[in-house]
Specification:
By secondary structure, the protein is an alpha/beta fold. It folds into 2 domains: 39-133 and 258-327, Bordetella uptake gene, domain 1 (D-Maltodextrin-Binding Protein, domain 2, 3-Layer(aba) Sandwich), CATH 3.40.190; 136-250, Periplasmic binding protein-like II (D-Maltodextrin-Binding Protein, domain 2, 3-Layer(aba) Sandwich). Helices cover 43% and strands 18% of the residues. The chain has 11 helices and 11 strands. The strands form 2 sheets. The chain has a 6-stranded mixed β-sheet, sandwiched between helices. A 5-stranded mixed β-sheet has the order 7-6-8-5-9, sandwiched between helices. β1, α2 and β2 form a beta-alpha-beta unit. α2 (52-68) crosses α9, α4 (105-113) runs parallel beside α11 and α6 (173-185) packs across α11. The protein is globular. It starts with 11 loop residues before the first helix and ends in a 5-residue tail after the last helix.
């Protein structure tokens, strides 16, 4: 008769076997993380090629590729105010090989703008670092008889029905910044959303809309060509390539509506990999090439710890959520 020998669950031999398996698994995991990355990394940009977010992504990708000796591939996935691309990363494997470039949309205003979100901007992501910040510029057609923000607000108050402004879309950072300005001053500023910055700029230059709010990167060429006249920017301090443009805060103390770009991984990405990505990202952002390239476009290079970036995201969600709810803005 065959006898079956079973080791009791609490038997020392079984415990030793479990321990051996656990140690082997831990060793394999440690080796895997120590070797990170050993294959290409994909960075999802939730915007079309050529915009500020894409420019920052490609600068970072080059630096990380050099540091890791692995390809870092930029994948543009626009749509849904950034929710499409960023949402795809929330569902990706938490191994550090799929990352998201996010902005004030998906990780700021969108939770209040959209009735439902395809992801939780806090719970579904592991922040890595802030990368860049840039203001929007409020400008006017040269025929509009204003030279500064006070004159612009005064013109809005005396214009029948208020003063119209164009932005690159409903719920964009330009739109939200102008709604903040409207709420803090009471000036009747009327929003005309466009499907992108290019048509908005074209209509203001053609004189169809008197005021434009758009990114510093898109606005500067038209300002330098004399096709638009700058009134103020929505950031803090001065713009390195256009120090003559005052901040809204010079007239309205404490005002700040800065756009930003940051790097995130899916939640549950191992802390060792987050630290490795943060270390090399901070080195890249602090390089002369990265800083000078962004400065030439009116943007500021930034870096942070993962913890600082996480706190910043929570503050942005609270800040822009309040603006969206007060203005009763809904996504198209």
């Amino acid at each position: 008769m065959r006898m079956l020998f079973r080791i009791p669950s609490a038997h020392p031999l079984r415990l030793l076997a479990y321990a051996a398996i656990s140690l082997a698994s831990l060793a394999m995991t440690t080796i895997s993380r120590a070797d990170f990355p050993d294959k290409p990394i994909h960075v999802v940009v939730p915007a079309p090629a050529g915009g500020v977010t894409d420019i920052v992504a490609r600068l970072l990708a080059k630096k990380l590729s050099d540091a890791f000796r692995q390809p870092v591939v930029v994948d543009n996935r626009p749509g849904g105010g950034g929710n499409v691309g960023v949402g795809s990363v929330a569902r990706a494997a938490a191994d550090g090989y799929t990352l998201a470039m996010s902005t004030v949309g998906p990780h700021g205003a969108n939770p209040a703008l959209y009735g439902t979100m395809p992801f939780n901007p806090v719970a579904d992501f592991a922040p890595i670092s802030l990368l860049a910040a840039f203001p929007n510029i409020i400008s006017v057609h040269p025929a509009v008889p204003v030279k500064n923000l006070s004159e612009l607000l005064a013109l809005a108050r005396k214009s029948p029905g208020g003063l119209s402004y164009a932005s690159s879309g409903n719920g964009t950072s330009g739109h939200l910044g102008m709604e903040m300005l409207k709420s803090q001053t009471g000036a009747p500023l009327l929003h005309i959303p466009y499907k992108g910055g290019a048509p908005a700029i074209a209509d203001v230059m053609a004189g169809h809309v008197p005021v434009l709010v758009d990114s510093v990167v898109s606005s500067l060429p038209q300002l330098r060509a004399g096709k638009l006249r700058a009134i103020a920017h929505t950031g803090t301090g001065s713009i390195s390539v256009a120090p003559e443009i005052p901040a809204v805060a010079d007239t309205l103390s404490g005002f700040e509506a800065t756009s930003w770009v940051g790097l995130l991984a899916p939640a549950r990405t191992p802390p060792e990999i987050i630290r490795r990505l943060n270390e090399e990202t901070v080195k890249a952002v602090n390089s002369d090439e990265f800083r000078q390239t962004l400065a030439s476009r009116g943007a500021q290079a930034l870096s942070s710890t993962p913890e600082q970036f996480a706190a910043y995201i929570r503050a942005e969600i609270d800040k822009w959520g309040a603006v969206v709810r007060a203005a009763n803005i809904r996504a198209d």
